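A quick aside before the break. I want you to see a complete sequence-to-structure record at least once, exactly as it would be stored in a machine-readable document. Don't worry about memorizing anything.
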Amino acid sequence: MNKLDKKPNILVIGDLMIDHYLWGSCDRISPEAPVQVVNVKKESSVLGGAGNVINNLVTLGSNVDVISVIGDDVVADELKNLLKIIEVETSNLIVEKDRKTSKKSRLIASQQQVLRYDMESIDDINENSHKTIISNLEKNIKKYSSIILSDYGKGVLTTDLTQSIIKIANENSVKVLVDPKGKDYSKYKGAYTLTPNKKEAQEATNIEIKDEESLIEASKILKEKCNLKVSLITLSEQGIAIFDEQLTIKPTVAREVYDVTGAGDTVIASIAFALGNGLNIKESVSFANLAAGVVVGKIGSATATLDEIYEYEYSLHKSNSNSHIKTFDEIRTLASKLHNQGKKIVFTNGCFDILHVGHVKYLEEAKSYGDVLILGLNADSSVRKLKGETRPINTQDDRAYILASLESVDYVVIFEEETPYELIKLIKPHTLVKGGDYEGKEVVGQDIANELKLVKFVDGKSTTNTIKRIEKNAKCNN
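That is the input. The structure line, written in tokens, reads:
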């Protein structure tokens, strides 16, 4: 992953709230009623709702502005103080005197939630607040790379206001990302993308998402009915589905899941941050998966710093190269699992005798066509049949290990046959990649894969040329 060193200006509009926790223990039942008596020992408050999105953005390094509506009460003062602690300006928080600022209190006894009680207003904001929000937005719209609408159904993001925000943003080429609420998503029409989870997407489309076909159907409906540039559906441990012209699933990268609280806020914040750094939507979703992988490994609503994400990504790739070299039986099981996860499999093959820059660039381009690159490597016996008795220079085990160590190569499988047809039948790749010299020729396995991609070689770079130069130098030295 490239370093993300920009600090994009991102605006968050939505329902702000405070998540309040009372921590204690329970040793007895009340004599007044059959209820637990909790001895509260600690109290804490953190930003919740749209505030958690803001917290994630700040932690990543964004410059964040917020627009919302709050009450004229002590909870509002507490909320402003929490925003000031993370250095977020509060001047665009609009006060409605009769409104209660949202506060959700949770009573925790011996690490278990016993009770939650909410104090809040959920009525739609008034017309004056609506006008003030639009006025503030119009004054500053050009400074933002994106706007996040964080809708918790507490009355700030009314249908009229949401549509007005999206209209202004689109007129100024500012992307609007929405964390939606409810079953009717028509209020978000025209947004860049929505980030519903699987359950929310099912409720909004009336489609049970049970396989790739139904996932595509639900994604299409959301994209078309809401006039989105791209449709996203978060799939918990399966990752995030992206639908623009076709379906792509970016798999999750979480190793251990302790708590999914706030993971959705992390995802939308991370996507907006990555887009603001110039990544495309697929790269941004991959980044968001890494951020979510960090967050779900923590307890409670959490955030992920860039350093934590970089370290986490690095740790995922710290495996011995031997673990990426597979037998036919192993790759059969693995390919089936990859298909079930919705990953796009790319396959290529070759001798790769003396690795050079042409090989590396070829493999990097091959990997760019999907999620997983499987490389079929000609065994020594196969190379001799193709290249003659003096080849290969390097043994199949040496070649396999070096190839498996490349970042672009996910798995290497050695095959004895002259062609990899049986291996391709076993893997059933989505994309088959060969060199540009196969233009106009029949390619082995083309009848199995969904598509064929031809990659041009780097001029003058080949194992044969390398060997000739070595032989020439050897003669000169003699």
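Two observations worth writing down. The two ends are 47 Å apart (CA to CA). DSSP finds 15 helices and 19 strands in the chain. We'll return to this after the break.
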